[in-house]
Fold these 2 entries.
Entry 1:
Amino acid sequence: MTPISPPGRETIDHFHPKSGPHGRLDLALEWTNLFYCCDHCQQMKGDQFDEALLKPDASDYFFDKYFQWDFANGELKPNEVAPPEIQHRAKQTIKIFKLCEKHPILRLKELRNYLAGGATNLDDHSYRDFLERAG
């Protein structure tokens, strides 16, 4: 599960969608095009695609390079000190998966539950990276 995983069921997302204006039916069954994703984010993405979209298994990907948390409001934001191209890729990923729609409220709710429960196992919670860094 990724550091930004919301409370949802795991499913498989096609990095390059199968249909729509960016459809790549030829990649529908390619392992390199299939990734775990929660059902909510998969529905939000739909058949959208942008070449700037971050691929979760890229060798140069690491969370802090592209993103930062705003712990005051629960938002995921592009890393403000990253170069413009890196920020653009983070913005596109946030936009396509709609990671700042409903998620900030859910992150803050999960943080309150986590802190109220004391030291519990992070694996039992959604938004684990957010909780670990905030707590």
Entry 2:
Amino acid sequence: MSDLPPAGVPPAGVPPASVRAQLRSTRAGGWLWKTLVFVAGLFFIALGLVLVVLPGPLTIPPMLLGLYIWSTEFAWADRWRARMLAQGRIAWQAAQRRPVHTAAVTVGGIVLLIAAVIAARRYDVVDRLLGSFG
């Protein structure tokens, strides 16, 4: 008998391969991993774009997170992330120079967003728009 562990079981003291390494070990798994990374990053980028309607630096953190997720697999995203970090630092410094103004504009934007959502629900704006296309 051999002292080797059964197939698929790592030897004692050796950590099992990460999910990422296991998925990337096959062509289909590598494609699946890149797709999952892309979708996860896209979610946070889309969230950042949705938050563009709110004034202030609220849009930057989710976009940076999305770019960070993408940069783990895509070199082009790593370059974009570096540029976004620089822009985020500039925006944060500007917000820190005028904290009362930044807070007032951000709270005002949130109040306007809530008012728009309430008005859209109350007057069935979405249903009317969808009905006009059908």
